[in-house]
Amino acid sequence: MAEKNDRDFEKEYSTQETVEKLRRLADCLEQGKAFEIMVGGERIYVPLRATFNIEHEREGGEEELEFQFKWSVAH
Length: 75
Description:
Blueprint: H1 15-31, E1 35-39, E2 42-46, E3 51-59, E4 62-70
Antiparallel strand pairs: 1-2, 3-4
InterPro entries: Amphi-Trp_dom (IPR027598)
Protein name: Amphi-Trp domain-containing protein
Organism: Aliikangiella coralliicola
């Protein structure tokens, strides 16, 4: 497998798109399945071994809430 380049991609979604993505994610988690999603033209596979955390940041009058999955990629 070829090594992937570093990247940091962010995109805003409509409420309906967000609901659909979260519903698919929740269904995969409940069924014990890996989650697949297209992000910036790249298909991302989130494995079952991924850990989940929620991050909250507050700075300069803005707040940010991130739902994150993290996992190691075998080289």
